């Protein structure tokens, strides 16, 4: 490496060409790199879904879910299996262990499922696929005072036309869509009147509504295809199907006995935009996300679409990810430029302008090289990678400062030109290289985190890896070549430059005076009282840990960052009238509009409206209201205040099973702070356990709105065969089939129409299917066609059932969720409750399993993997330093400041009122790299002075002075470079601020440790080493005396 540094100093053209290549590569990378708000996430999941029309959740669980779970459970590479059984469908989600090939697991799953021979014949074929996480590009709504059929027709055209636009992979209709359905409804009265059964009617329809190729006539002139075309596509065409010929020569047609409706399937799904019925859309990016191009093509299409929409129909864009990207990019760009400007000012105040300019130019070159290679590592321009560039700004400048200071020091001693650059650069080669290696190693835990968060952490890691690598290249190969031509400082002919030089000398002299008159005397006092200093530092460190361990500092996975919208979710008990969902959604919408119309409340926003749009959706017993607010920069009032007042105005909803308002970026779902899972196959015991946990959890301070999905149970009708039924030729299968035909319906056909498969369903009229009384009057037919009242052959009873059955790792699972107030820690409450009560509950409830879910589970996994990985990396860094220093003692001194960086991070979070989160941990990693850099520089200088013959005390005292300027500047530039984003109040910055706090305050506190505690620890180490040596020599001497007697060692043979 020394020869390479010298070669570039001797060949300045090579250094300039390397710099130009990095700058051009950066320009190319910036133009071609993918752009997105958050990094795309690769999903380590295999999803299985199977429809079983009309089946209850219990039946779906028994017939589908359990059989598939048992079949795939022994496949290598599966981490967890979660399943859901709902009305008519079963879904199994398989999470793959990190590092396993998802394609291999997918193929194994397909083979296992294909080998199951006991899946229900009336179910549809299982769909098995690897989960694909498409990145959303845009959300928009189509609405109008027209029939839903017309909106659907327009929506399908939009979907197909937009899907072929540049940068767009898929357009999904996410709200308000209902599938077409042809319903043939025949009452029990007409079935008996005309002596017909559903089976007979279905058979006639299938034979009459058909397209069938009948072969080919091969003539001399060519082949002629024979084709039967009698397929019915519309409701009125089915009405003309002849069921039988009457004796009088007339026909009994299907339309004579049935009410045939050509409409929509019976699902309670609706979407409204500002009170008008519509459809909601989501536009998804392609696998190669091009945010700018995709948004431009989508917006252009929608603008053109608006001009050709029929009267009364309109389309509105909700928001685009590009707007979010632009806002965040603008914020980060401004903060980066602000941080760079502040760093440049600091450098200009203490360094010669030529050094400051080349250092800043080196930062630009380093970033250009980083951006050049980022796409080759699969990293895009996203919120985290852009922030990582800001964060690393204060780290990469350290190398350039240290090298520049070293070269300037040599030239100040009269060693000019290439010789000065060579001696200066090579003199700090070892500490600078070790600092880069150790910092990269400290960031390695970022790629060892759970798969849920790995895409986010990889963006930061690879930016750090490339930035530090290019920083090492720039500071050791390019910067020395440029500083070779630095001339001695002389007065300028320009007054402005002279005044700036005078100001720089004032600051530089002040720093030197502070080091000589304040720092050095205080350092010597501490060195003379080194044990007391050590005790004082460690007392403060223990205090910081006690604040964390004692619950003063709360932990969470992600910081609670407010969004620009409020999402209100209300769920009624399963089976509740859908009218309840419509009414509550309308009520919440009215309350939101009333809040904006409240003049007193509006004054908090300077009299300006703060709501931009309101959409609402209804699906059976659930409803949501989406309240979009003006961007944070366009309103004064906070979203937290709006949410608080809206919640107060809405009041309680006692009939609802759950009700929540969410307003943070932690997901589109309501913000759930605490999530626990209870696993057991004993439903009765599970019910008791759930209530016990809810009661226990509700007693904890700060916990509110505790709820479970057990509340979604519903009643079911259960039918059992009476003893004498078989004598009448009736089996339970006959009863089940005919009741299913009557209520769910018999699917006669599926016909292709309007880009969807339309089901043709045969069943009772809706009014007969809306009451249990129908079962009392219903007739079932035996094999001879004899009608028998249902109640005479079957016992019909009402029993508890389920709307949804959730399972985790082959156990029925019930989820308990709760909201936790800001001043309390969800993870701490969960840990305390589980440690205090789980052993007792496990003894009381056999087979009981309590575990964390949601973010609590991911947080626990992250904390475990992060701690282990950081410990291993710490040992690796220690080993690297032992080899580099050829010492066991000195590497511990280098790493001594790392724990105190954690202390600074904790105090910084307390000062700003932030909780400790995953982003805080990553900031601490960055801090560890910076403080190691400072310690390496100091220790390297101590070793140099010791080699020159200085005593340990003098070497330590003088090394602190010699490196005070470099250490101060590196710490100051790191802190100052982060100040713009540290004090940024916009929503976009709140996600990143915990990381900035850890880095900025960690470096600040650790710098004091570097300047004071490390010198004291060095002398303590020397003192202990000498004592050990004296003790060892005394031990040897006593051993010799014991062996040879009182003779001296000289007289010993």
Give a nutshell description of this structure.
By secondary structure, this protein is α+β, with helices and mostly antiparallel strands. It is built from 33 helices and 30 strands.
What is the CA-CA span between the terminal residues? Answer: 52 Å
Which structural category do the helix and sheet elements fall into? alpha+beta
| pLDDT < 50 stretches | 1048-1053
The outline comes out as: elongated
Instruction: Count all strands and give the number.
Output: 30
Overall average residue pLDDT: 84
| CATH architecture level-2 label of the domain at 515-560 and 887-1053 | Up-down Bundle
Hey, roughly how much beta strand do the residues contain? 15-25%
Query: Helical residue percent?
Result: 40-55%
Description:
The protein is α+β, with helices and mostly antiparallel strands and 1053 residues long. Among the domains are: 43-132, Multidrug efflux transporter AcrB pore domain (Alpha-Beta Plaits, 2-Layer Sandwich); 515-560 and 887-1053, Multidrug efflux transporter AcrB transmembrane domain (Multidrug efflux transporter AcrB transmembrane fold, Up-down Bundle), CATH 1.20.1640.10; 562-670, Alpha-Beta Plaits (2-Layer Sandwich), CATH 3.30.70.1430. Helix content is 54%, strand content 20%. The protein is built from 33 helices and 30 strands. The strands form seven sheets. Strands 1, 2, 3, 4, 20, 21, 28, 29 and 30 form a nine-stranded antiparallel β-sheet that branches. Strands 5, 6, 13, 14, 15, 16, 17, 18 and 19 form a nine-stranded antiparallel β-sheet that branches. β17 (611-619) and β18 form a beta hairpin. α1 (2-10) packs across α16 (454-483), α13 (383-412) packs parallel to α16 and α13 packs antiparallel against α31. It is elongated and about 125 Å long.
């Amino acid at each position: 490496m020394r020869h390479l540094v010298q070669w570039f100093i001797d060949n300045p053209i090579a250094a300039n060409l390397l710099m130009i290549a990095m700058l051009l590569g950066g320009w190319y990378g910036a133009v071609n790199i993918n752009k997105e708000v958050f990094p795309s996430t690769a999903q380590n999941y295999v999803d299985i879904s199977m429809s079983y029309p009309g089946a209850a959740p219990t039946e779906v669980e028994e017939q589908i879910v359990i059989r598939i779970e048992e079949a795939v459970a022994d496949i290598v590479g599966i981490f967890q299996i979660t399943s859901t059984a709902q009305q008519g469908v079963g879904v199994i989600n398989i999470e793959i262990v990190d590092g396993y090939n998802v394609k291999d697991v997918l193929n194994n799953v397909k083979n296992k499922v294909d080998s199951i021979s006991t899946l229900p014949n009336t179910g549809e074929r299982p769909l098995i696929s690897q989960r694909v996480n498409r990145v959303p590009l845009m959300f928009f709504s189509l609405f109008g005072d027209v029939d839903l059929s017309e909106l659907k027709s327009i929506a399908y055209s939009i979907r197909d036309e937009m899907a072929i636009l540049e940068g767009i992979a898929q357009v999904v209709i996410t709200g308000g869509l209902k599938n077409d359905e042809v319903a043939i409804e025949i009452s029990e009265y007409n079935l008996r009147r005309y002596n017909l059964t559903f089976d007979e009617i279905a058979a006639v329809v299938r034979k009459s509504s058909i397209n069938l190729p009948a072969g080919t006539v091969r003539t001399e002139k060519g082949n002629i295809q024979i084709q039967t075309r009698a397929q019915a596509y519309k409701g009125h065409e089915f009405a003309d199907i002849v069921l039988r010929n009457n004796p009088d020569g007339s026909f009994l047609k299907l339309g004579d006995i049935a009410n045939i409706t050509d409409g929509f399937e019976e699902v309670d799904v609706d979407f409204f935009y500002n009170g008008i019925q519509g459809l909601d859309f989501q536009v998804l990016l392609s696998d190669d996300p091009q945010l700018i191009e995709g948004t431009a093509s989508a917006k252009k299409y929608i603008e053109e679409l608006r001009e050709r929409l029929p009267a009364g129909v309109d389309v509105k864009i909700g928001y685009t990810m590009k707007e979010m990207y632009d806002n965040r990019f603008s914020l980060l760009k401004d903060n980066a430029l602000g941080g760079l400007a502040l760093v440049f000012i600091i450098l200009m105040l203490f360094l010669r302008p030529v050094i400051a300019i080349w250092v800043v130019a080196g930062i630009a070159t380093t970033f250009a090289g980083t951006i050049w290679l980022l796409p080759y590592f699969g990293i895009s321009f996203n919120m985290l990678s852009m922030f990582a560039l800001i964060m690393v700004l204060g780290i990469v400048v350290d190398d350039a400062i240290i090298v520049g200071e070293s070269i300037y020091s040599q030239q100040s001693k009269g060693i000019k030109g290439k010789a000065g650059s060579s001696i200066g650069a090579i003199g700090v080669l070892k500490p600078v290289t070790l600092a880069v290696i150790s910092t990269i190693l400290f960031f390695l835990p970022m790629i060892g985190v759970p798969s849920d968060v790995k895409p986010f952490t990889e963006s930061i890691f690879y930016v750090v890896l490339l930035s530090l690598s290019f920083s090492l290249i720039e500071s050791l190969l390019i910067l020395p070549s440029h500083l070779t031509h630095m001339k001695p400082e002389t007065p300028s002919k320009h007054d402005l430059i002279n005044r700036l030089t005078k100001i720089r000398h004032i600051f530089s002299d002040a720093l030197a005076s502070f080091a000589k008159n304040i720092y050095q005397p205080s350092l010597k006092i501490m060195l003379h009282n080194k044990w007391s200093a050590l005790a004082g530092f460690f007392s403060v460190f223990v205090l910081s840990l006690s604040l964390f361990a004692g619950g003063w500092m709360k932990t969470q996975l992600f910081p609670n960052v407010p969004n620009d919208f409020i999402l209100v979710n209300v769920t009624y008990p399963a089976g509740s009238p859908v009218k309840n969902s419509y009414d509550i959604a309308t009520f919440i919408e009215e309350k939101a509009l009333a809040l904006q119309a409240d003049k007193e409340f509006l004054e908090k926003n300077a009299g300006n409206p703060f709501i931009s749009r309101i959409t609402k959706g209804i699906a059976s017993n659930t409803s949501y209201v989406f309240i979009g607010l003006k961007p944070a920069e366009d309103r004064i009032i906070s979203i937290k205040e709006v949410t608080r007042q809206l919640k107060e105005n809405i009041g309680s909803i006692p009939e609802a099973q759950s009700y929540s308002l969410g307003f943070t970026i932690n997901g589109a779902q309501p913000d759930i702070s605490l999530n626990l899972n209870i696993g057991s196959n004993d439903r009765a015991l599970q019910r008791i356990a759930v209530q016990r946990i809810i009661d226990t959890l509700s007693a904890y301070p700060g916990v509110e709105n505790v709820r479970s999905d057990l509340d979604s149970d519903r009643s079911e009708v259960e039918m059992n065969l009476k003893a004498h039924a078989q004598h009448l030729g009736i089996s339970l299968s006959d009863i089940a089939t005919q009741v299913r035909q009557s209520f769910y319906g018999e699917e006669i056909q599926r016909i292709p129409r309007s880009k969807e498969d339309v089901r043709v369903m045969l069943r009772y009229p809706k009014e007969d299917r809306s009451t249990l009384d129908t079962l009392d009057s219903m007739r079932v037919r035996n094999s001879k066609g004899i009608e028998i009242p249902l109640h005479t052959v079957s016992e019909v009873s009402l029993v508890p059932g389920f709307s949804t059955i959730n399972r985790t790792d082959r156990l029925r699972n019930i989820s308990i969720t709760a909201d936790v107030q800001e001043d309390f820690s969800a993870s701490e409450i969960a840990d305390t409750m589980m440690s205090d009560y789980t052993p007792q509950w496990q003894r009381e409830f056999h087979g009981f399993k309590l575990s964390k879910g949601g973010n609590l589970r991911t947080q626990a996994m992250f904390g475990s993997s992060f701690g282990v990985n950081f410990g291993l990396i710490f040992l690796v860094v220690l080993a690297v330093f032992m080899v580099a220093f050829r010492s066991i003692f000195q590497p511990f001194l280098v790493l001594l400041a790392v724990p105190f960086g954690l202390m600074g991070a904790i105090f910084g979070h307390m000062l700003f009122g932030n909780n400790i989160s995953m982003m805080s941990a990553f900031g601490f990693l960055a801090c560890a790299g910076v403080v190691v850099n400072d310690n390496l520089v100091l220790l390297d200088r101590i070793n140099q002075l010791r080699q020159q013959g200085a005593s340990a005390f003098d070497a330590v005292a003088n090394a602190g002075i010699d490196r005070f300027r470099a250490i101060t500047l590196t710490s100051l530039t790191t802190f100052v470079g982060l100040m713009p984003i540290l004090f940024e109040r916009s929503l976009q910055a709140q996600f990143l601020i915990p990381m900035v706090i850890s880095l900025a305050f960690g470096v600040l506190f650790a710098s004091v440790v570097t300047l004071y505690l490390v010198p004291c620890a060095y002398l303590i180490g020397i003192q202990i080493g000498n004592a050990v040596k004296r003790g060892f020599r005394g031990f040897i001497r006593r051993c010799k005396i014991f062996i040879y007697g009182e003779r001296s060692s000289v007289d010993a043979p």
